[in-house]
Amino acid sequence: MTNGVRPKIFLPVVILLLFIASIAALTQGSTHVDLEVTLRVLAAKITFHTLSGSVSKVDEVIVWLIRVPRVIVAAFVGAGLAVAGGLMQGLFRNPLAEPNIVGVGSGAVLGAVIVFLSGLTVKSALALPLAGFSGALLALATVYALATRGGITPVSTLLLSGIALAALLGAISSLLISLSIVNWQVAQEIVFWMMGGLDSRTWTHVWISAPFISLGMGFSLYYARDLDLLIQGEETAAALGVDVELSKRAIIVMAALLTGSCVAVAGAVGFVGLIVPHVTRLFVGPGHRALLPSSALVGAAFLIVCDLLARTVHPPAEIRLGIITAAFGAPFFIFLLLRKFREVSLL
Amino acid sequence: MVDPDKNSGIPAILISSVVALALSLHLAQAYVGRLELSDRAGEYGRANFDTGSTNYPREVNDAEGYALKLARPVHRAGSQYWSIDEYLYSIVPPREVVSVSQSAYDRTYSNVYRWAEEFHPAISSDPEVVLRVDPDLFLVSSSGRADFTEILKRAGLPVFRTYTSFTKLEEVRRTILLLGYLTGRDAEAAGVAREFDQAITRAQRWKSAGAPAPRILGYSGKYSYGGETLFNDVVRAAGGINVAAEHGVQGYEAVNAEGILRWNPDWIVSGAARGNSAAVLSRLLEDPAISLTTAAKKGQVLVFENNIFLPMSPFTALFLDALGEALYSPKTEVARD
């Protein structure tokens, strides 16, 4: 595969797909809104013009307060998870690595479960994303403290600590959920949230997640070269001037920041971070300077389409987003495994 | 080689994390069962609706402390929660209920599915759908998530968050009147409240003076119904003793075989999906612990259909009547389909 040729075709195609997916997601939903009305609302809001009387207040509200923030959150979450996945796969030199591998997703889930049980979610729309984000950061700090020895953080120790912490946090979440079963409505809310979803997402969720995800993606690009060198091995990277420990630390913190921000606003949406970087790599090659931004675009388009399916397959009920992504992701994961087995048997 | 001195911070972080998690667990568990906005919004439902005033505008504080102003009587009411559906259909003409919870259509426990099937109100699971049906008043459970409510409020919809986890019959009665006041159906609500009062009175009259109070265990899915539950108040109204509350259970708590044997209730009362009562009854009687209780030995295990057993609405009257009859009528049977 020739790097530099395919990205030139691939990126415009993905941008076009992202645009089409966004328009489709804005015009389709549990109720009908004309494409023309959607575009007029968007144009008026973006240019700060007042809408004419031919657009109803309900259409305006549905497009601007319900669908637009939802599509933006989907795009950010898809992009964030894809970039986090790309970072983790690069750092661990393993195509099966995914963003939650160091336990941040489990931390976010536990944070969310606690605010569900405390009743804070009924009082403030901010409670859930903030708790999810705090849980993710706490989990990251704990994993890092566990894995760091004498200022050095071996990747394998980090990985094992992350797996152990994820199991522990998962067990605590399960315990809390089992205690909450008596309040079936709360238990139902928790279970639904854990399946991932973007229902009832507002501009508040955009403002909470967008800065952190943008920051995480921006800094990821800064470390793209280091990641390319780290793939050659830590000694080689160090010989070529990479501050290995600093880079590893920064990459993991960014991946965790991205994952925590995404889980905080969308719940546990699996497989995006696994399959998107992998597919993107097939088109743009392994270089992270092309891979990370391309993955972000593909992830955004992918999650917008998945969310569109989630709310249109069985209206007015919504299929949980995590189910849709898993429906794509699980077969792909098996395909990866089988391909890996075949490669090994051919050696 | 690892220098142990450089790892001295790790135990501290670990201990801090464990303490933080334990504290979180404790807090979360302490709050289980007290999830609503209740007892924090003291102004809830404050309105002069006892006067039967027909004046507008009306202003009522909801469970969030939000003051809802209504300029005129409501002709398009929406609901997001199954027990609110039952209040609305009891008070408002069915054609004026424009959206309901998914549960309203569920024949296994809804008391209002016939109206839902006849008038086809929208299902309120999606804010877009709720906005499309354009209700004059949209009622949300106080235990519902804030983000759903926030979208509707931002869209300018008149949203009222009402309590739904009732623990007293009086709270049900008061909510009937409150929803009557909110919808402008004061007279209809007063009528429903009167019928509800009559059901309570009937339940109280079943037990003859001087007769021993039956000791009753409310038991469903391994959980017992303790004090501070509506079941407890129904049992009290029917002249019984709630054995779980008697043993210090507050709210809903899991009870094991040993607990059931120690409590040894005279009666065990449970719920089942519509048409499933006989199967649930036989399963209960096969339970080794239950089979040894006085309730089982005397054939006093009662299984009511969930549309009778579960409501926290005017339809709780069904349970009051059914329980009173089951406990005191000489023709008591073990399964009630």
Largest two-chain interface: A-B, 52 and 53 residues
Question: Shape of chain B, please?
Answer: elongated
Number of helices of chain B: 15
Structural class of chain B: alpha/beta
The CATH homologous superfamily of the largest domain in chain B corresponds to Nitrogenase molybdenum iron protein domain
Q: Give the strand content of chain A.
A: under 5%
N- and C-termini, Cα separation of chain A: 21 Å
Give the CATH class of the largest domain in chain B: Alpha Beta
Q: Percent range for helical residues of chain A?
A: over 70%
Number of domains of chain B: 2
User: Which strand-content bin applies to the residues of chain B?
Assistant: 15-25%
Q: Mean pLDDT across all residues of chain A, rounded?
A: 86
Percent of residues of chain B in helical segments?
A: 40-55%
Structural topology:
The complex is a heterodimer of chains A (347) and B (337).
Chain A (H helix, E strand, L loop, with lengths): L5 H22 L7 H12 L10 H36 L11 H15 L1 H4 L3 H21 L7 H26 L3 H11 L8 H20 L1 H8 L2 H6 L4 H23 L5 H13 L3 H25 L8 H26 L1
Chain B lengths: L8 H23 L26 E4 L5 E4 L6 E3 L2 H10 L5 E4 L12 H7 L2 E2 L3 H7 L3 E5 L4 H9 L4 E4 L6 H15 L2 H21 L8 E6 L2 E3 L4 H8 L3 E2 H4 L5 E3 L2 H7 L3 E6 L4 H10 L1 H4 L2 H4 L3 E5 H4 L6 H13 L6 E2 L1
Parallel strand pairs in B: 3-4, 3-6, 4-5, 6-7, 8-10, 8-12, 12-13, 13-14
Antiparallel strand pairs in B: 1-2, 8-9, 9-11
Helix pairs in contact in B: 6-7, 7-15
